[in-house]
Amino acid sequence: METASGRKKSDHQQQQVLDGSDIMELVENKEVFSDFVDHKFQELDRDNDGRLSVNELQPAVADIGAALGLPAQGTSSDSDHIYTEVLNEFTHGTREKVSKTEFKEVLSDILLGMAAGLKRDPIVILRIDGEDLREFINGPAYEPEMVSIFSEIESSDGSLRDYIIKALGKLTVDQGMPPSADTWVISNIVEPTMQSCAINEQDDKPITQETFLVAFKKLADCVAQRLQEQPVIVAHSENTFDGNGIKRLLSNKFELDKAMNAALENVPKDRNGKLSKDYLRVVLDALAPSAGLPPLGAIDQMDKVVSEVFKMVNCDDGKIIKEDEFKKILLEILGSIMLQLEGNPISISSNSVVHEPLATPSTTLLQPSS
Question: Does this entry carry the keyword Plastid (predicted)?
Answer without folding.
Answer: no
